[in-house]
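Please predict the structure of the following assembly.
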Amino acid sequence: MNLVYPLAHLLGAVMLLCAFALLSQRRLVAMIALYQMEALTLTAAAFWQGFAQHEADLYLTGVITLIIKAVLAPIALRRIVRHFNLIRAVETAMPIGVSMILGVGLVGVAVLVVLPITVNAVTLTREDLAISLSVVLLGLLVMTTRRSALSQVIGFLSTENGLVLAAIGMPGMPFVAELSVALLVLVALLVVGVFVFRIREHFDTLDLRGIEEIERRGR
Amino acid sequence: MSAAILAVFLPLLAAPVLGLVGAPMLGAWANFWLAAVVFAVTLTVFVSPGSGLIHADTLGVIFGMLTAFIALTTAAANIAFVRGEQGQGSVRRWRVYHAMCAVMLGTTLMGLYADNIGLLWVAVEGATISATLGVSLPRTPTALEAAWKYFVLGGVGIALALFGTMLTYLAAQPALGPGLNAMSFAALSANAAHLDGALMTLAFVFLLFGYGTKAALVPLHGWLPDAYAEGPAPLTTTLSGPMLNVALIAILRFRHLMQANFSAGGAAMNPGPFLLTLGLASLLLTAFSLARRRDSRRFFGFSSIEHSGLTMFAFGVGGATAIFAGLLHMILHTLVKSALFQALIRGAALRGSAAPGNYGFSHLRGMMATNKFVGWGLGACVFALVGLPPSGLFTSEFLIVSQTIQRIPVLSLPLGFGLLLCAIAIIRNIGPLMFDPAPAGTKPVPAGRGMALVFLHLGIVLVVAFAMPPMLVVALSGISAGLQ
């Protein structure tokens, strides 16, 4: 029996599940754990695609993903959480029910948009694309429904996992490893940014305090 | 090695070196000479445009020269800026600042010269990162706030653009098969009719919103006014004009793929309405928000959104003439806007400090009392931005309006309305900026030599608009006929 499709879809589905769990999870520590699980699944997916497509490039992507996204990024995020004493921080966000319904709606949109127009494309790509678009949209939803900088960053990291999932599913696409490295630079800077910029001061009022200051000085 | 590769990698390789130069003034001079060398190299790119990944077409060559020219004049004006600011601590890390100037120049040129949609994406990403780091440099809460906003919005835009890039690759599979060729603009353009139209439409939506974030088109424009107002002036204002161009040109190229597929009877949708909607929304939103701005850098940031939207609108109208007008508008606007910001920085410096927060209209009013050259330069630049004759922008805006009347008459009314409102909002500020009584304690101060550059920019705008060199006419018409 050919295992290529079922296993690729299984890994994609696990990632989708993680993205959904991120949407409902309010505790930062648990969000980081979910992100880590998503990144580990992505690593497995990259290796599996590399094996299925016989592309050494994808193994490289997998190794990079494993080291930086599944190991280093969670360590850095956990350190930020400890440093700013956010271990027990619970976020106020949109009610879980509403955000889940929105999430299901987005996945529905992704599937309805992608599947009909990719009838001619390779099947492996087709479902993978729908799943990765769902992960991307769910990550963006996390970014828009959360207020604190750190959970927005985690939302972005999840979006970025979705992008890499799409990239590794493209048949024979060049530069996958290079593109994922370029994305990682962005991710790394985002994580460092939270730390260095000390957004702690406006952690809860990320979009308010600075803007009040700007208001005061006259826009 | 081709000149194009040299122009791209010279600043990128120089950036770490600039990052090590400790003395601010030394860094400013090094940055100036770097910009001068890069400008000289971009002039020769049309002789050796390179091949493969970095292959400059005529469009890239023209805008590359423009970018390097603006980088050069900015670097020249930057010397005076650094001299005035180094003691005041408005920028904490001059080394990072100069390194980011170089990275911005290199990535902008890479975006213009790249013949590969992946490389284009990497260039835009690099430019975003360098710009965000630049905005954060004053280290004030507002600057960090602006940088964070830019980073998050820009990051989302970049993510969307990458998804669009991958979908474009997938859409090219039926025509070009796997491999590098399916990511080359030249190959995509030659085979546009055979792309998978439906997939290309989906890709285009992602690309439009992705690169549209970088071009500051309206639902995605939020980062631009704050970034313009809060960052160190030369890096975030004058240099970011060319960066908007990269995003606009990227959208223009992808629009061409869509249009060609649509015209050939493919399944792609007509890209016109998308661009027209975003362009018009940008224009109208600016028209209504300009009047309420009291900080001049934020004000002119909004005006950049207006012109970005206007360019997008011109591309949306379609046809060779409208695209010609859009490209001309980009060239002229970039020149005028960078001159304007140089004059503003000079004016603010003469009033004490060029750090963010010193650019309120109330703080800068009555510039004639401080210095006549700066006053006239500022007035001329603001007037040039309005688009009334004899300003150069009149030519391009006239072309855009007349093309709209010819092709989509319904839209000429909202277009004219938006243009008129923007013009009124901008023109209202000329009088107070120049002739109002200056704030108490203002003394006349010599302007320094930098103002000559402002008038040089304005002179070039006049020549390009009203006495365009035949070579440029031929080149631009060729490009717009090819991309219509």
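Residues 24 and 94 of chain B are 6 Å apart (CA to CA). Chain B touches chain A through 52 residues (CB under 8 Å).
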